[in-house]
Amino acid sequence: MSGNSFVVVANRLPVDLDSEGNWQPSPGGLVTALSPVLAEQQGCWVGWPGVPDQCPEPFHTDDGILLHPVQLTQQDYEEFYEGFSNATLWPLYHDLIVPPEFHRTWWETYREVNLKFAEAVSTVADQGATVWVQDYQLQLVPGILRQIRPDLTIGFFLHIPFPGAELFRQLPWREEIMRGLLGADLIGFHSIANAENFLALSRQIAGTAGSHIGQPDALEIAGTASIREVTATVQAPDGRTVGVAAFPISIDSRTVAAMAKQPTNLRELLGDKTLILGVDRLDYTKGILQRLMAFEELLASDAVQPQDVVFVQIATPSRERIEHYQKTRTEVEAAVGRINGLYGEVGAPVVHYIHRSIPKDVLMAYYAAADVMLVTPFKDGMNLVAKEYVACHEDDGALVLSEFAGAAVELTDAYLTNPYDIESIKRQLLTAINDVSTGAPEARSRMEHLHVQVMEHDVHLWASSFLRSLEAKR
Ligand code: GDG
């Protein structure tokens, strides 16, 4: 053990390989939020560096944070990451938008890799350290750590939705996952609805013959999952009380808002048109095809004119070897081609499609320039893109947002839409286009409220409220 009183463990280490083959820290929202805590508490981040069969030596960032890599083999990558994490758990937890695959070999590898992560944490964590486990890839880590390092205080946060009990119970290894999660002292979800799903499931599994999970206590039966305050608990198999609550994640709002003020020539490039923007990992949960179809129908019906609007869709490559991701890409690209074929002109496409990752500052320039942001997932734990757009707009622009994104709980002044109902997307998109192009006071007032909400509820609040609740469990 080597002087780490605070350890974050996540599937990915915040590093990237640069063009010269050196590992460089790559700060994202989570890193930004946790860096001050990690730096202050001599912290350590445990994770996979992102390339199979390669593993740099542990190294310190400029902030003094120790990055401790866990090596994954090619087989781990295929069965733990692409397989169980992203072809079993991801679709199951996103309400079966595509059917999850259940394979015993994938499960075995998921277990082995979770053990690998837990052992790595165990070697770096001080006696009595606080460990914060991140996300669905590592749901067994709290349970393993509880057994091998009972001195630790363990938090777990789920970044994706937690499904209803009827769906979760399809999982052949449901009890092992529950027992893994209940190794934590505190389990955090994005929303009260997700936390309630977990509590309802705990009640059901606790009542199953042969289950080792204790009946929930009186507080939990009262069903009081709440935001940023632990009022609900579940009894773990060893009799400990595990806190359950909602901690809606957010962004580094001030930094994003400041980046959006950088000068850009995007408007000159795109012309004097209403700019509609979509930004997503290319994932079937995000509803990219549906929003393109809604846009296409608006063009077809003459509700919007091709010379008045331009749609930019940034679709970052993601999980490209998984079948349903390939299918989604094919469908999206066919739709882009079809729409441009029907409504674009030489030198003036109506849809610009970018299928590569773009630098953060360029992304911020797109947010700042966009008149209407279209965020239409069928299901999303939170959706940071929606919050990033709002941080970039004090009182102009419009956000069209799916009711099924976790962000919709807080961003109630968005133009909310049901992505399963194409008429609903069309209606809200058209209203947003008309409101921003006529300078309607309604649009202005909506964005002012949204902006204040995101500026006042940033990622620092998320991290500090979770860690405060976790420390209270000591
Ligand atoms: C999961 C949950 C939850 C996107 N393209 C580029 C780029 N991005 C950045 C965005 C944003 C992030 O990626 C995407 O975050 P989201 O929250 O929108 O979606 P997921 O990746 O699915 O994240 C989600 C989140 O975890 C956190 O808990 O909100 O519900 O699914 O920050 O800006 N960044 C750059 N280039 C790109 O091309 N630099």
TrEMBL record:
It comes from the Bacteria. GO terms for biological process: trehalose biosynthetic process. GO terms for cellular component: cytosol. InterPro entries: Glyco_trans_20. GO terms for molecular function: alpha,alpha-trehalose-phosphate synthase (UDP-forming) activity; trehalose-phosphatase activity. It is an enzyme of class 2 (transferase). It catalyses: ADP-alpha-D-glucose + D-glucose 6-phosphate = alpha,alpha-trehalose 6-phosphate + ADP + H(+); TDP-alpha-D-glucose + D-glucose 6-phosphate = 5-methyl-UDP + alpha,alpha-trehalose 6-phosphate + H(+); GDP-alpha-D-glucose + D-glucose 6-phosphate = alpha,alpha-trehalose 6-phosphate + GDP + H(+); CDP-alpha-D-glucose + D-glucose 6-phosphate = alpha,alpha-trehalose 6-phosphate + CDP + H(+). This is alpha,alpha-trehalose-phosphate synthase (ADP-forming). The lineage of its organism: Bacteria, Bacillati, Actinomycetota, Actinomycetes, Mycobacteriales.
